[in-house]
Amino acid sequence: MGADAEQPPPLPAEPPPPLPDERPPLPAEQPVASTSQLSNGEAAAAAEAAEAAEAAPPIPDKPSAEEEALLKAFFGEMKDVDRDNEVSRILYAFKLNPFEQLNLRFTATPEEVRKQYRKLSLMVHPDKCKHEKATEAFEVLGQAQKQLLDEEQREYLWKVLDMAREDVRQQREKETKNDTAIELAALLHEKGKEGVREQYEATDDFHEKWKMKARDMLAKSEWRRRKLTKRLKDETERAKEETKEHRESAKRQREHEKQWESSRDTRVGTWRDYMKKGGTKGGGHIKPPKQKTHDEERTYVQRPVGEQHRPPPPKPAGPKKH
Fold this sequence. Notes:
CATH superfamily of the domain at 70-149: DnaJ domain
Radius of gyration: 54 Å
Structural class: mainly alpha
Distance between the termini: 185 Å
CATH topology of the domain at 70-149: Helix Hairpins
CATH architecture of the domain at 70-149: Orthogonal Bundle
Largest sheet: none
Order of helices and strands: HHHHHHHHHH
Low-confidence stretches: 1-6, 18-24, 26-36, 56-60
Helix content: 55-70%
Number of strands: 0
CATH class of the domain at 70-149: Mainly Alpha
């Protein structure tokens, strides 16, 4: 081949490989398809989306000060409503059971009582709650906590609660006596029937029945206590009245004796004057009273003088009883 022969063009030089700390170049942006390249449905959807984007107002990054104030006022009103509802719940709770006033289960410990009291007292405190009866609700909470933390009052309350719980248990046993599901659950439970009973007593259904039964027993106990208190009060008042009457009677007797002693000289002088005149005021014998002649219906009958003090005749003796 000759020197003048046509030489092939040189190959392009290969680019150097990218260094480890260099990123590969980003791919070129794909051109957006034109409306003519889209189908009829896709074109209509794209047009509607564009119109909606243009018509929608711009979304602010942060709420305005006015909106922030409205939100705070709204949440503030919600808190006031919650406080008012709690005040109403406390005042309308069963008054003989402090557990219900504090919204606690009957198995609550003294520490749980203290925690619940702190929580509710902050909610209904008169300085923070605008309810007109917030002070009354606050005092009710304090009295309920005092009653539950007092050993004597708590012991009396638990005696009634134990009787109520035992009645609910017996009623439950009667209802589930022939229940195969309960028997099967007792066989599967590791503690047997005792475990099934403990599991049921932890439910809200058992506690609700226990609460209703406790209300009934506490109401009856309070009624008996009030009747006994009233009876004792009446007996005390009657004893006071008797003592007062006895003292007044003794006082009248002493005054009578005093007057009798003070009039002794007068009575003795009158008797002496009477005896000096012959024993009678007129100096003659005693005359019988005159018969009333103007008594038309004869309601008054004058007896003869000799029969005025005659004793009544004896009654005839009847036949002897054998």
